[in-house]
Amino acid sequence: RIAERRDAPWTVVTVQHRRHDEATRREIDDAFALARRLGGDAELLHGPGIADALLDYAAHNAVSSLVLGRTRERPLARLFNQTLTQQLIQRGAHYEITIISTPQARANARRFGLSLAPDSWGKDAMTAVLATVGACLAAWLGEHWIGLSDLAMVFIVAVVLVAARTRMSAAVLAATLCFLAYNFFFIAPRFTFAISARQGVITVFLFLAAALVAGRLASRLRMQVVALRAANRHANVRQTLGRQLVGATDNAQVTHAGRVALEQALDAPAWVRLGADTSTSGSAAPGDTDLAAADWALRHGQPAGRFTDTLAGAGWWFLPLLDGEAHAIGVAGLRFDHQHPRLAPEQRQLVEAMADDIAQAALRTRLVADLETAHLHNETERLRSALLSSVSHDLRSPLAAMIGSADSLSNYADAMDASDRRALLDTIVVEGERLDRYIQNLLDMTRLGHDGLKLNRDWIGVDELIGSAARRLQRYQPEVRLQLDIPATLAPIWVHPALVEQAVFNVMENAARFSPAEIPIEVRARQHDGELVIDVIDAGPGIPDDQRARIFDMFYSVERGDRGRQGTGLGLTICQGMIGAHGGRVEALPGHDGRGTLIRMSLPMLQPHPESPRDDG
Description:
Elements: H1 2-6, E1 11-16, H2 22-37, E2 41-46, H3 50-60, E3 65-69, H4 75-79, H5 84-91, E4 96-100, H6 103-114, H7 118-146, H8 152-165, H9 168-186, H10 198-246, H11 251-266, E5 270-274, E6 281-282, H12 288-300, E7 304-305, E8 317-322, E9 328-334, H13 345-412, H14 418-449, E10 458-460, H15 462-476, E11 482-485, E12 493-495, H16 497-514, E13 521-528, E14 531-538, H17 556-559, H18 571-581, E15 585-590, E16 597-604
Parallel strand pairs: 1-2, 3-4, 11-13
Antiparallel strand pairs: 5-6, 5-9, 7-8, 8-9, 10-12, 13-14, 14-16, 15-16
């Protein structure tokens, strides 16, 4: 009610400072379940001191108010201001502390404090008695067979052992019994509780004080060890899960990693599903009743199935995977055998933490997928803009020249001489061929971007391949000078002739645009290490080192302005795709003496398959 009035979250906590019996664990489970049904959280804390654990949790979780019941207060602790409420009031000055007490609760606490039921600590009391008997036997043997004189240490060791294995009350009982046994059997006069010397009285009572202090310290150390073990196991399990989830790139990998981690940590079959996806991860599949509980947990964002009040007849315990806004994005399930009538608070806390880690990993993969989709859309829009820019400039320019020449011929043909008409017709032919090349490049890019190219290979001579590309280039650009260096000893190559010729033509055309007209473009062919290497070398301004790889990007020349030259920026991209389809590679290297550019195309010297001499796909 306080939390609802203040619109604040609230958490129910309990501190395990000693080993709980079955009745106490059942009571804690019921309290935690009630807290979750009412909309709160539940936490199990470990520590030797209740006040220390509560204040430490409050300090690290921005707690403003503490609400606790009035517990049984021992008179000695009240005398020294060491009761729980007194410690909290003295040390919790920054918190609002509310203490709730009812007559029935105080009566139950008093009865619980005075009860000595065998189920509560009868086993620990028996341990204290047996430790006292064992200490007496060890002291007698040490005195008669070893000549040990300082027998008090034997009984102190017994008290420490009891405290290390049981609760503090059993350690106090062991200290008292060892004190009486030591006095009765080993302090003169023996077999009486009387003490003959004053020094003996001091020794016996100092022994009792040392035994009580040692027992308390051992008990606190044991609880600290238990808490550290639980925390260490919790941390190791979550660290292992974190390492597995870091490498998960999609929902399938997240569900698999989460299921494996849950099964290893809880030693029980696990099942994980994200969203409404029917694909799940699990070594065992839930039945129809279990799936109904899983769907309920997914819809309502609350646990369902076994160990809950919702569809408790299911054999699985389902926990929703929540995002940051308390919306369920998936569900995780665990199936425990009948030897687990209830779920321990430590197990529940661990599973809830792991479920939160799995949910965060799923959100991360979803975010990555959304970012990749957004990046793809951005790249698509960028390419679309570049293509429109290219079409608006590089395709409209030849069209404008063709339309202008045709219009001049249509309107002024009779007034022109033969040479002018021939010049206009040549312009139409040249610009039409240039437009045809642009469109062919766009079609080639479409083919490269959809399921690759089908290679219809055939034998062709290297001189014929390069010569055909050179003749095409000189037909389009008669002013271009080429210097071919093709040895006659080169063996034919098994390739798709049209594609490789187009790739060589694109590289030669690119070199012609940047090389000075008075310096020829060198084209050399060699065979080296089972590859055909074709080098095209120009004497242009060259390419900076940091941009050599980028010249193969689509529309790169458009982005850099193409230095005033014409071109769509697709030629080298198409070349790389065509050569790559043959298993080759294209590289941009410095030219002679660091001047110009050398484009190297390397093609493997393959042999036709004996069963498919014409088409290797």
